[in-house]
Amino acid sequence: MGNWKASTRLLRVKNLARSGVNLNKDNHLKCKRCSKKSKQSVNTKGKSLSGSMGHSFNSVDLKEFGEHIGLKWSGHTPCKFSWFQSLWGNGNCGFVQKEAIGNSGGMCLIWDCNSFVVDSAVKNDYFLAIRGKWCGFGQDAIIVNVYGPHTDAKKKEMWYSLDKINRRVDTAWLLCGDFNGVRNQSDRLNCVFHQSRATRFNDFITSNNLVEIPINGKKFTRISDDGTKFSKLDRVAVVTGGNKGIGLEICRQLASNDIVIILTARNESRGIAAIENLHASGVVNVVFHQLDVKDPTSIAKLAKFVESQFQKLDILVNNAGETGMIIQHDEFRAFKDGNGYLHVNDQDAHLFTEIMKHPYDLGEECIKTNYYGTKAVTEAFLPLLQLSQSPRIVNVSSNYGQAHWIPNEKVKAELQDTENLTEEKIDEIIQRFLRDFKSNKLSENGWPLTCIAYKISKAAVNGYTRLLARKFRNILINSVHPGYVITDMTSHTGFMTTEEGAKAPLMLALLPDGGPSGFHFDEMKVASI
Q1: For residue 144, which of 175, 182, 381, 397 is within the disulfide window of CB 3.0 to 4.6 Å?
Q2: Minimal CA–CA distance to 389: which of 188, 161, 242?
Q3: pLDDT (mean) for 85-107
Q4: Would you call 454 a catalytic residue per the annotation?
C-alpha cells in the first residue's frame, strides 16, 4: 500500500477567532460553545503512524487526534472506505482521498460526521480541501491538507491555487500538512536557508490573513551529533543487505537516532520479514525496498524511489556482501575451538581444503557484489548525497581487505599508492586476479590462497573508498572492519554480537562535520591500508 504519516508541519487558520474558537494552552483548537477540543494537525513523533500500511495503523484509533485528521502517503493504491471506518473506531466518519502521483503525493482527510458536515471537495496535485459546516460553532469552514512540492516553480503554483480558492469565499479556513518550507532563519540553524522561498511563504500567509497555530512536538526534527546544525529536515539513510546480521542492526541503531531508514535486501520476502520484526519491536521509521546490487535496473529503481520520496540522501551504508566460498559450517565451527578465522592464513591453507572451497564462479560473483555492486550503488546515489547538508558513505569492509594479505608485492604497492591509485588501476588488478584465478595460477603469481576473492574484493573496496573521498571532499567517506562478529557470514563464529558489530559503522554514519574521510577503520580506530 505504501507509507503513511499524519500531517505534521503547520496549521494555518483564518476567521476562527470571530466565530468563538480560540487556542488553549495545549495547542488545541477549542470551541467556546461546546468546549470540545479539535487537534487539526498532529506531530507524530513517537506515534506508530508510519510504516507499511496494514501494520502501523491497525492498533490506532484516529479519534484520539480529534475531529479531523489529515494524512499523506506514498504508494499507488487507494484505500477503501471500510478501512478508514475501522481506524476511526465507530465508523461514523467521512473521508476523501487523492491518489498519489507516481510514488508520492497521496493525501486524505478524515472527519467526524457528527461534528463536520461536508458539502464539497477540491483535489489538487498539492492539496486536498473540503468545505462544509463545523457544527461546534455553526459556521462554514474549509479544511485543507497540504503536501507541498519541493521546486520553486511548483511551490508558486501551489500558493497561487490556494490563494485563488481563498479569495472566492469568505469563510473560516484551516490549512494543515507538510508545506516543505520554513518561515524564517530560526527554522534552519546553521543549515542552508533560502530567503526567497521563506518570503513567498510568508507573503502567502500575510496576504490571506492567516495566523500560525503551534503544534506539539520538537521544534527541529534533525539535530547534528555535535549540536551545531538544526533543521526541520529528517535525515534519510539507505542500508544495503539490511535484512539480517550487522546490516539489520545498523538499521535498528540508525533508526533510534531519528533517521528514516530504507532497508534493502535482494530477497523481498526476507526484507519484508525484517521490516515486520523491526516494527513489532517499536522501530517504525524503517521502510523496505528491494535491491540487487548486481542489477543496474534494481539500483535505478531504488534511486528513483529515494529521489521521489525524499529528494535527497544523507547516509549510504554499503553492507551487502558475499564470501565467494563454500564453507562446511559445522567443521569450520569445530576448527581450533570455534576461532576459525583467527587461524585462516595462506601458510595453513592446506588445513582448510575440505572445509573452505573456492569455486571460480563464486569468486567472480563475490567480486561483482562486494566491489562492483558497492561501486554501482554509490555512483547511483552520489547526486542525491550531494543534496544533503551532511552526506556520509560507509563501506562495510574487512581487515582481510588490507594489502598485507596479498603476497604479490607489485599489487600491494599499487593498492597502497593512494596518490596514484585510480579506478582503472583497480579494475586492472581485478582482471589480472580473475585471469590467474581461472587459470589456477594464484600461488604462482602471488595471490591469496584463503578467502581468495573476498580479500581482493575488500582490498578493492578500501581503495575505492580512498579515491571517492579524494574526489568528493564534501562527503565523509570511510570503510570499516566491524570486528569478528557472530553472523551467518562467519559461520556463527566470532567474539562480538551484531549490536557490538554495528557500533563502528554507526559511528562513521553519524560523524560530525569535519570528521575523518578516506580512511579504513578497524572497529572504532583508524587502521593501515
Answers
A1: 175
A2: 188
A3: 68
A4: yes
